[in-house]
Amino acid sequence: MRIAVLAPVFACVASATGAQAASPAEEKCVLLNAVTIAPGAIGLPTGGARVTAAQFVPAAGAGAGLVGEHCKVSGAIRPLDPAAPEIRFAVALPSDWNGKTLMLGGGGFDGLVPNVAGQQTVGPADRPPPVSRGYAVFGGDSGHQGTNAAVAFPNVDGSFAMNDEALANYAADALKKTRDAAMQIIVRRYERTPVRNYYAGGSNGGREGFVVLARWPQDYDGAIVAYPYWSAVVNAMGFGRMARAIAAPGAYPNAAKQGLLFNAVMSACDGLDGVKDGLISNPGACRFDIGTLRCAGGADTGDGCLSDPQIAAIRTIESPVSFKFPLGSGETAFQGWPVLSGADLRGAQQLGTTPPVSPPTATQSITAIFWDQLIRYAVARDPAVNSLAVDPENPGVWQQRLSYVEGMLDVPSPEFFAFQAHGGKLLVVHGLADAVVTPRSTVLWWNRLHERMGAPTVRQFARFYTVPGYGHGAGGLSAFMAAWDSLPALDGWVDGGKVPGAQVVADTNAATKGRTRPLCEYPSWPKYAGSGDVNQAGSFACVTD
User: Fold this and answer.
1) Cα–Cα separations (whole angstroms), residue 107 to 40, 104, 340, 418
2) What is the DSSP string of 162-209?
3) What region does 165 belong to: left with phi over 0, alpha with psi -120 to 50, or beta?
């Protein structure tokens, strides 16, 4: 896509902050209100785009909370189908621009415009957000607006998937359309093209990161991908399997039993990394036997044990499954979640507070809601369908459509030769205690990347880190809430050729805030050295034994 730099025409504009004369940055911001973008300036078919608002934002805050002076531009991209929703997006344009851009990904079913003045996924706790560091930051809602109050969370509203264009936008197309529209605005504001373009996202935003690097590798110089939902439908089939298992009579473990399980696993495996610190850093060595929690006789006798149906359900959640029918991307299996080696099932994202039902309630798990929305709107396209009656291992009449949707949404086996040849760099991070997007899927993806491209080539452009005790971002329960200053690491590798050295990740949980650990490259993990402060990364070494 060629970007035309249009000659600016600046006029004296009244200040939005008072009677004082507007600064040049404020004048340029106000003039962006008049911007429209022709369909031909966007690399995929659209009805064109327009700026819906441009607001000058003075600097505010200090330290890590500083939000630098910038212009926030909101825009909308028109669909081709009159019945499809528009794509809404935002761009934060810092007055002191470093010549670089950062696109932010979404999460779940998206439906929300990211906070472009906020921190990136797994960003540092002690540094300002990217816009305050000079990056022009942008992101979109993936082509629909989450509005269904019945699902409690806008980003698990799947009703948009009844429309073909909206589903295609969510799958991939909105990413390119948003990037191209945002780039037009960035060039209009600064009168030059960026020198570097980066991407950062987690969960579905991680899937989106893999999509853009595979499909539009020339658009990006680097990416930060966290807990990627790359096998979205396959992982959602795991959600369906989980939902059906805990919806069985007597199978749902209440919050007390969920805590009982987590504490028992922690007690058995916490010390395997050399120190009892509330983290299972070496989950591969954890061999917890859930049978030790069985109620006498197998019947439910209270919160101090698990009944046979509850044990069966948890074993289903933990175990892998092979599918006996073809999926569109070629995937054949789901790996299960590490709930017997440190992942916590408590919380809204994991098991919620009530068993799943269809249609869903706000108190059941978000994972079960996601499966429900996928089946009713993307697969069956019938809101009356009972999602719990659809067996992901044997979907019956929905098999062909489920396979088709999986082929649309899931990223195929990794192939980043063009991105690597372009000079792109990739940082991937996943928590080992993630009970939403299983870390086992990212390990599978990483191993496939090596098989496909070869270890020497992968080493030239990619790193994969794991974080013990880290759940699914801000929404998942985490014994260790990761904060990592990843953007300078990526930028230094891309722009300065500085290969990432030893990285440190900090914990932002209230009770353990400030402790640090080495950020270990997979398959290594942080082992306590035997002496030193257990809250400091320097007391640990990344090992593979």
Assistant:
1) 29, 10, 26, 26
2) GSHHHHHIIIIIHHHHHHHHHHHHHHHHHSS--SEEEEEEETHHHHHH
3) alpha
Dump the DSSP string for 25-61. HHHHHHHGGG-EE-GGGSSS--S-EEEEEEEEE--B-
Closest of 45, 60, 54, 5 to residue 27, by C-alpha: 54
Q: What is d(CA 325, CA 335) in angstroms, rounded to the nearest whole number?
A: 16
pLDDT at position 8? 38
Task: Give mean pLDDT, residues 407-411.
Answer: 95
Q: Is the pLDDT of residue 464 over 70?
A: yes
Q: Distances in Å between the alpha carbon of 412 and those of 51, 207, 210, 448?
A: 35, 11, 10, 10
Q: Which residue is associated with the tokens 């880290």?
A: 470
Rounded Cα–Cα distance for residues 481 and 279 (Å): 11
Inter-residue contact 257 to 306 (CB < 8 Å): yes
Which whole-number Å values give the CA distances from 383 to 160, 386, 403, in the listed order?
12, 8, 19
Q: Distance between CA atoms of 491 and 25, rounded to whole angstroms? A: 26
Residue range 169-190: mean pLDDT, rounded = 98
Query: Mind listing the pLDDT tens digit for each residue in 207-263?
Result: 999 999 999 999 999 999 999 999 999 999 999 999 999 999 999 999 999 999 999
Evaluate whether 70 touches 93 at the Cβ level (below 8 Å): yes
Using omega within 30 degrees of 0 as the cis cutoff, is the peptide bond preceding 359 cis? yes
8 Å CB contact between 341 and 282: no
Nearest in space to 388 (alpha carbons), one of 406, 402, 368, 362:
368
Global pTM? 0.94
What's the token pair of residue 229? 């939902």
Q: How buried is 194 (Cβ within 10 angstroms: 0-12 exposed, 13-18 middle, 19+ buried)?
A: buried
* Strand 87-94 versus strand 136-140 pairing type: antiparallel
Give the contacts of 312 (CB within 8 A, at least 6 positions apart).
245, 251
What is the DSSP code string of 382-417?
A: -TTS-GGGSBTTB-GGGHHHHHHHHHHHS--S---H
Lowest mean per-residue pLDDT among 25-29, 458-462, 474-478, 499-503: 474-478
Cis previous bond, 523, omega within 30: yes
pLDDT tens digits, one per residue of 318-328 = 999 999 999 99
Give the three-state DSSP class for 94: strand
Give the active site residues.
203, 434, 472
Contact (CB, 8 A) for 72 and 92: yes
DSSP state of 352: B
For residue 277, what are the contacts with CB-CB under 8 A and spacing of at least 6?
A: 270, 528, 534
| CB-facing half-sphere around the CA of 159: CA atoms within 13 A | 14
| Cα 528 from Cα 521, distance rounded (Å) | 16
